[in-house]
Design a protein that fits this description.
The chain contains eight helices and nine strands. It is of the alpha+beta class. The strands form two sheets. The protein has a five-stranded mixed beta sheet. Strands 1-6-5-7 form a four-stranded antiparallel beta sheet, with helices on both faces. Helix 1 crosses helix 3, helix 3 packs antiparallel against helix 4 and helix 3 crosses helix 7.
């Protein structure tokens, strides 16, 4: 994240701001297994990775899982119009698959949707799109392992990156922070939300069905009636 222009010492706050982009062959028809059980057409989410032990499953934040536009909107709490506008103007494009190819649907990663939620909160706080672009560029280049330890603070004009609780305290004591976004808390919230929604394997295109405990409870109640 770019600084304010002054040299900062190690551990100091990092401020982000800017001044006032013929038929082919027909395959053999599918048949059920000899025991009569049909193979599943949809994967379960989290799904077992091919060739991996059953204990190793895909999590919502796995790089092998992508999410289509409507799912990204639902998880980030934004409209499809906002999603489309931010992609077309280069504020935040999907990193898994863009919609430029004919017939292709945008596919967003977990990190993309995490940034969508952060952008939404910064906008709601009155931060300008120009400053948000700088913050997004920095967060996209950051190591994913470091994201959960970040807190973004803002006074409505400047966005500050804090990497420790003491930096947050120092910023508040200086009267510069009006609101903050704990990226780790947003991450956990998004992980729980996407676990209930459908995803798509980025390597095979297989649909991964989300698991919603509330839906399962409702089904059990209906069966009991």
């Amino acid at each position: 994240m770019s600084g304010t222009g002054d040299e900062t010492r190690s551990g100091a706050l990092c401020a982000v701001h800017v001044p006032r982009a013929g038929r082919g062959p027909i395959g053999r028809p599918w048949r059920p297994e000899p025991d009569g059980e049909e193979l599943p057409r949809l994967g379960r989410f989290p799904a077992v990775q091919p060739g991996q032990p059953a204990i190793e499953r895909l999590t919502p934040s796995s790089s092998l899982v992508g999410y289509r536009g409507p799912t990204a909107c639902a998880a980030a709490g934004i409209t499809y119009r906002q999603l489309d506008y931010w992609a077309r103007t280069g504020l935040l494009e999907p990193s898994v698959r863009s919609g430029y190819a004919a017939g292709a649907q945008r596919l967003y990663s977990f990190r993309d949707i995490l940034l969508l939620k952060i952008v939404k909160r910064l906008l709601d706080a009155g931060v300008s799109l120009q400053n948000i672009r700088v913050a997004v560029t920095h967060l996209q280049s950051a190591d994913p392992a470091d994201l959960t330890g970040l807190t973004l603070m803002s006074d409505g004009a400047t966005v500050y990156e804090c990497t420790s609780p003491q930096q947050v305290v120092d910023l508040l004591n200086g009267g510069q922070g009006v609101f903050g976004i704990a990226v780790g808390a947003v991450w956990q919230e998004l992980d729980a939300t996407l676990g209930r929604l459908h995803g798509e394997r980025t390597d095979t295109g297989e649909t991964l069905v989300g698991h919603d405990p509330a839906d399962e409870l409702a089904q059990r109640r209906n069966r009991a009636v």
